[in-house]
Known about the structure:
- It is built from 4 helices and 2 strands; from the N terminus they run αββααα.
- It is mostly helical.
- It has 2 domains: 1-30; 34-104, no CATH class.
Amino acid sequence: MHRRTRLFVVVSVLLVVGGLGLWWASAERLPRRDGIRYDPIEDDPEVQPQLRAAEHEAADEWKDVPLEWRRGPGRMNRKKKILQEKYGIRWRTPAELNPDKAFD
């Protein structure tokens, strides 16, 4: 293998491993509630009224949906969209922050 090729492979591996390390470190620093990571914005008292309002609005929109579908990621995604469109708040859902967990 040529020297340039080996150098390219080593640098590429280091970049991938470094990127994964940064992702892992940032994910682990997120606060947890009952073992589930959540968006730290939820702890901000100034944002909590908008979070509650978006949750109620999403719940109202889903009230006619069959019970077994109400809790899933669809409602969380609707809440996220309401927060972004109506309040300009970027909120990450528990499903986004916990890709290793299943939410129903």
